[in-house]
Design a protein that fits this description.
Strand content: 5-15%
Structural class: mainly alpha
Largest sheet: 2 strands, antiparallel
Radius of gyration: 18 Å
Order of helices and strands: HHHEEHH
Helix content: 55-70%
Length: 125
């Protein structure tokens, strides 16, 4: 994991979880890959190990990673597909309606939007 800038808008455990989810969606973490240990993450980012454990436990609860006794946490088969389906549905339910409303208010049309330069790290290909 690279440097993380924490923000005050969400609990750190949730931000850490979202970082791991992003790595799964981006293909950085693949099925069968081990997650860094709780101790390793806690030391590297100066976090309380309980905070890291809570993030990892949510990933386990969502069956995105599995605990292997004495070995650590591993990305499950199908985790990325499950995340894609969940994130797409959430985007269409929560983010897209707000974006559509903003586009309407600004008087933008599809041609203008498609010609706009893509910025940021999440540009679609």
């Amino acid at each position: 994991m690279s440097a993380i800038g924490w923000n005050d808008n969400a609990p750190i455990y949730r931000q850490l979880k979202e970082r791991v989810v992003g790595m799964m969606l981006d293909g950085v973490l693949k099925p069968g890959d081990a997650l860094p240990s709780v101790r390793q993450i806690a030391a590297e980012y100066q976090l309380n190990p309980i905070t890291v454990s809570r993030a990892y436990q949510e990933l386990v609860d969502e069956t995105l990673v599995e605990k292997r006794r004495g070995l650590g946490m591993y990305v499950t088969e199908g985790a990325r597909d499950k995340l894609l389906a969940t994130e797409r549905e959430r985007f269409l339910r929560e983010d897209w309606p707000a974006m559509l409303e903003r586009i309407r208010r600004l008087g933008l049309d599809a041609a203008t939007l498609l010609q706009a330069p893509a910025t940021g790290t999440g540009a679609a290909s």
